[in-house]
Amino acid sequence: MRIQKIGVVGCGTVAQGIALNIAHAKLEVIMYDETENWLKEGLAGIELTIDNEISRWGLTPADKKAIMSRISTTMKMRDLKDVQILIEAKGRSLEEKAKIFMDMEAICHDTTIFMTNTTTIGVTDIQKQLMFPERIIGLHFILPVHKSIIVEVIKGIHTTEDVVKTTKFLMDTLGKKSIEVYEYPGFVTTRIIMPMINTAAHVLLEGLASAEDIDRAINLGYNITQGPLAMADEMGIDVALTYLDSIYKQLGDPSYRPCPLFRKMVREGRLGVKSGQGFFKYDKMKRRIQNS
Amino acid sequence: MKVLTLNCGSSTVKYKLIDTESQVNIATGKVERIGMIGASLELKVPDGRKVLREVEILDHVMAINAILKILAEPKVGVLKDLDEIDAVGHRVVHGGETFSGSVLITDRVVQTLKDNIQLAPLHNPPNIQGIEAAMALLDVPMVGVFDTAFHSTIPEHSFIYPIPYQLYKKYAIRRYGFHGTSHRFVSQRACEMNGHDCKNRTMITIHLGNGASMAAIRNGKSVDTSMGFTPLEGLVMGTRCGDIDPAIILHIMRQEKLSLHEADNLLNKFSGILGISGRSSDMRDIEELYFAGDKQAHLVINIYAYRIKKYIGSYFAVLNGVDYIVFTAGIGENSPLIREKSLEGLDHLGILLDKKKNDEVVGQEAVISAKDSATKVLVVPTNEELVIALDTADIVSRLKK
Fold first, then answer.
1. Within a 10 A sphere around the Cβ of B151, how many other Cβ atoms?
2. Tens digit of pLDDT for each residue in A187-231?
3. Of A56, A59, A60, the CB nearest to B258
4. I want to staple A138 with a disulfide (CB 3.0 to 4.6 A). Which of A99, A154, B129, B343 is the partner?
């Protein structure tokens, strides 16, 4: 299959990363979302990420021009009718995701492959509500999407092998290594990393050490490039809380019971990198302010 | 013989159709944006006619097919029939240690190229795609001409790096050198211009394009060159740093927490002329600023020319005297300023420039040294496609015999 044009539903942090990754791989991408303002913010977010990359030599100004020229936006779902692959990274609940795909089924060709970015929502649950359930597959990207080279590929019960093959081919094209995982709350990456992030928040709450030192201990002690609290900031404190809540509800394992600090931070609007403050502080370019 | 030369990049194919007997270009052109929306096909013929079309081209097979079609298209083409193409010559960036000259392409050669991909992960895959695509479309002999081949005569003491020897054995890490086709062409042409062959002659060839390299040549054979395991080593280039202390990059990676990709980009895409000037990678822009009195442009030009001068000195020692110094490629052919600055103060080595002549020569063959200069300095425009076409014709005609 020759892939040329991909649709992305949503324009939040993950969707921005996916669109950037696709355009950088020299494929055309069209982003859909409901309001002009969101789309504008989405494009501005992509530009900001690229500018950050340029400032640290990851991309060149010529790359920026080429990447931005391959990304278009729309507020009309119909404009996605001819894409070969549709990646959804918008719905926050099963209902929202199912609704998006049901709408897209009415618009797209029968051969369009549907992919949903999911961390805790089951692919099979979405499949139950679709006319052609065999063409949908789950993806779990790690933030920052354009830099992380791992993607978890989640087959629903009806997903065909052909769809799995095309998905792996696309991930190769995007420069990513895919690992196939079974449908289970949190899959591999989130399931393993969330207890560490949760414990780090508990350690901070209990006053054992400063946020800076907790992260430094894990970062340098175990050669993990990012400390758990910086990881939570990157993920979004609200998102981390949703993951913990969801996995805790599904598995009943107390190591996923969210540390109260997360709820407090969400109440205060300290959502991590995206709000400028989480466990650490960030500037307008989304760069960490040292000693924050 | 009519030879089609192909230079395949990841999303471009540049081509030239050459009559090797008369050494005349019949047509040139390129396909751009392969696999992307808005791909284009271009054809140019020497009388100035130019065709530019937007076409759907998804891969190298479609690209080469489009080139063949337009070459034989009744109204705009230059061939009555595709049968008129006698052979195809492919530019291949990296021949590794396997290929010391141009070769007839067979399935085995293609396999060897595939085995060598890790040496040139960016360049060789599209070269191979182009070869396979051309083989699928044309039933004529094909020849591979390697950028590295001319430097295969470099002696061991020059190509082995002083790092653990096992790395050479394990990963073939050594100096390969690039721009070989250009160094070979201009060195031979310099001898022809002076009415003799290359035997018993020593010369330094200086290829100054966006990428830049120098070669020390004795008896027509390369004995040293400034590019190394990759095209990053040696001279200051448009966006590449050339020689630096390797510890610098380790230090920057630590300080700035750079990934391998970012460090690679820093050295290959953000350094050189662009890195120092902060404004442009194009020497023409820098020269304009230089003549307007810009301080940073002066620094760029001084660093750039000083590096060339240092290599001239070291190759003088390597060769124990030099008969010719040859400038070629974009900057080498067109920049009297860079030529003058690079050769400034080398009178003790017997290099004296004719300043007036140097200033006059832009993009043409000429001798630019003073009459009493012990080393002759020449400008020779390069023509890599002609070398590819002539090598191809040579191998194919021997095949027919």
1. 28
2. 999 999 999 999 999 999 999 999 999 999 999 999 888 999 999
3. A56
4. A154
